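Problem 12. The chain below contains 463 residues. Write out its predicted structure in token notation.
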Amino acid sequence: MTSMPVARFLSCILVALAAEAASAQSGRTPRSDPDDVFRRLDGDGDGRLSATELRAFPGARRVPDLLQRLDRDGDGSLAPAEFRAIKAMAGKEGTPEAPAPAPKPELSPPVVAAGTAEEIDRFLAASAYSAQHAGLCLLVMKDGEVVFEQHVAGSGPTTAYQIASGTKSFWGPAAIAAIAEGLFTLDEAVAETIPEWRDDPRKSRITVRDLLSFASGLEAPRRLWAEKDKDLYPLALALPAVSEPGTKFAYSEVHLYAFGEFFRRKLAARAKESGGKVETPWLYLDRKILTPIGLTDIRWVRDGSGQRAMGDGAVLTARQWAQFGEFLRLGGAWQGEQLLPAERLAECFVSSQANPAYGLTFWLNKASAAGAAEQADVAGAGRRRQSDAVSAEGIVPGCLPRLVMAAGAGQQRLFVEPENKLVIVRFANADMPRLVMAGDYGKLQLGFEDAVFFAKLLGLTSK
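Solution.
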């Protein structure tokens, strides 16, 4: 099914909300309020809308893929926060009322708090600092064991969150697995596999390394979060190269969608040559990394191609994300088996030429001589973004030189710190997917600072 254009989608949602308002009985709460509509549609009262329940909403009849558009955690149903995004999306053409501020959640007692009294005090201080800045969960793993885990009330060890751009960091290790198998090389020209690029003077010279270090030179003007109705693979391939490959860093999913199409074609060519079954990049990631380390039940948000959203779609619990971090800390080994060659995986954590603060899909704790990062998301213009700060100064300036990070919108964090044998997960901003989809960054709480956090966690002197 072809996805509905964005303008028509917004128009249909406005019509649907107006229809709800028109059918309302008199009362203080308008039926066009998404929370009120949600309660009416939730026939079984379980706090989620199934596909069947959603069909009673006029917008679902006008927009056949409405569930897919709103289902940010990929579980096939809608929670109230996901359904609420309707109003924010419609607000792009209208003027929705500002939602009342949500009550600030309180921290529950730690699920785990192990170590010396001093260590536990530091963990608690770091967790409290995180919670002050919309933190939802903090998990600390030391030498493979969870030594601290604390959640806000209503969350817990089985609660999963969308990690947004933290998803990007799956693809550096997946590429390393393919390289170790001889499927391609880092310095191979992508145009050898994507003939559409061969006659372009810039695109013909883009390498796999350029794509994975986010320095391909491809134009990155879009908020791809808001274009999930489209098949983003051909979109990325058709973009012009606006700078020389390998020279300019731009933090965007565009590079990954181009890499995904390259990877898909490589796998298809191998299957054709061997007579084997065609494997997608997703199944390859599962087979080579996620399944062997026990991550078999991750949920994913999907894009307009029907595939898992490559740059931002993973939905994990803190323990699941920490498990991936521990695999990285162990140099690609798991339970005594070397799944990836350690020396090759280490290439993910080497500065790229375009940005010393970035490797292959991972942030590094290094200041960038190139200064601030360029970012495609124009909705965030006018503010100093997370990537700007990390690129300019490093993650924790002056400390922890081997620290690496996978980071997502709303300050989702996976830290891997080999010196102290630590893997740390932080989730934050419960309403992040809806606000980012709406481009409403001003309502995210972004005051969390990595350096202050580590000062509290490890007793370091913050900058």
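Discussion. The chain has 17 helices and 14 strands. Students who got a different answer should revisit the alignment rule from Section 12.3.
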